[in-house]
Amino acid sequence: MSAGEGSKELVERMLAGDTLALPRLISLVEAESEAVVDIMRRIGPHTGRAYCIGITGPPGTGKSTLVDKITAVLRERELSVGIVAVDPSSPFSGGALLGDRIRMQQHYLDPGVFIRSMATRGSHGGLPVTVQGVIKLLDASGRDVILVETVGVGQTELDVVNATDIVIVVLTPESGDAVQAMKAGLFEIADLFAINKADREGAPRMKAELETFVAMKPGEPIPIMLTQAHRGIGVDELYEEVERRRRVQEEDGELERRRRQRRREEFLEMLQRKVRARFLDFAEKDDQLKELTERVAAGELDPYSACARVLDDRQWLGKWLIQGG
Ligand SMILES: Nc1nc2c(ncn2[C@@H]2O[C@H](COP(=O)(O)OP(=O)(O)OP(=O)(O)O)[C@@H](O)[C@H]2O)c(=O)[nH]1
Ligand SMILES: [Mg+2]
Fold it and tell me: How far apart are CA 86 and CA 119, in angstroms?
């Protein structure tokens, strides 16, 4: 049986609701198996139905707890849920992963909820390159709503905007959170703010501060919600706000614009990654390039001239682009 035939059967089973097929397909996508091209082509027509919510913010603000409570709200409405929790791949995050599992325990036995943890892309963070593929599988499998939790500082949080339809930035009244979030660029990507741990001191002040900031931005003001995720307080209201926003996005074409942009970036980033991989592979074996590199290393040729030489050589470019590694 070829890879194609295997994935055809798996995709058919997943589309028919077989719960064992989904995790197997996800594993293929995460491993960047050769079958992925075939899988994506097959599931393509079945995607675009799910609404994808990104939940991000500084560490420990209560994102997982909120995901858990939003999931409960969605289940009450009989909506099925897919959860992707992206954790830093550092060995120190083992605790956080375990924590997520424990916090989301009440949903583990619910067939209407599918939970997948993924590791970030190395030390610089960033969403794993395969996360879009996993989201598509969840979408095609018929999940109504997909929740993507990202933790870590910097890139992972920012990337989430390219993978989701709406971004909730979760902060707490704790001093420093807002500053950290602002520095990390989270204010630019927020569609909605949740000030969680509103049971703690300083929530109204934090809200007032955020309102001042939000008022400076053009366009519709970003809603700021107060939540106490551990008690489930404010979560219904938060979700209502998500729904309201979704309706606006659907009506004014913003959702489609966002998805177009996402598809564009996904393709270009993928192409860039593949071209780079192919180049590096080829470069390792190419004598001409090795010789040129050595001349640059020896200081005989400057890197600018060496680069120009490579890029001007159509024959050489054609060779690696077509033949690959
Ligand atoms: N006081 C208070 N504690 C909360 C609230 N929401 C969550 N917590 C607690 O905050 C701690 C961190 O919650 P998590 O949900 O793991 O936070 P997180 O943002 O997912 O954490 P990371 O994924 O590690 O960044 C847990 O002990 C929660 O019980 C809240 O509204 N008030
Ligand atoms: Mg978490």
Answer: 6
Q: What residues does each domain of the chain span?
A: 1-45, 47-252, 264-323
CATH of domain 47-252: 3.40.50.300
117 CA distance to ligand 1 centroid (A)? Answer: 17
Task: Compute the distance from residue 209 Cα to the ligand 2 centre, in Å.
Answer: 25
Q: Among the bound ligands, name the one nearest to the CA of residue 229.
A: 1
pLDDT < 50 stretches in the chain? 1-2, 90-96, 325
User: Which protein residues have their CB within 5 A of the ion that is ligand 2?
Assistant: 63-64
Q: Report how far Cα 54 is from the mean position of its chain's Cα atoms.
A: 8
Q: What is the pLDDT of residue 91?
A: 45
What letter represents residue 256's amino acid? E
Give the pLDDT confidence score for residue 95 in this predicted structure. 43
CA distance 164 to 148: 8
Give dist(CA 15, CA 180) in Å, integer: 42
The pLDDT of residue 94: 45
In this prediction, residue 126 carries a pLDDT of 66
Pocket probe for ligand 1: among 65, 105, 117, 148, the residue whose CB has the most ligand atoms within 8 Å is 65
Residue 53: beta bridge partners? 147, 166
The pLDDT assigned to 154 comes to 65
Nearest-angstrom CA–CA distance, 99 and 113: 18
Q: Pocket residues for ligand 1 (CB within 6 Å)?
A: 59-65, 96, 99, 103, 151, 196-197, 199-200, 228-230
Q: How many CB atoms lie within 10 A of CB 122?
A: 11
pLDDT at 87: 75
pLDDT of residue 97: 53
Ligand 1 pocket check: which of 64, 68, 151 to mutate, most ligand atoms within 8 Å of Cβ? 64
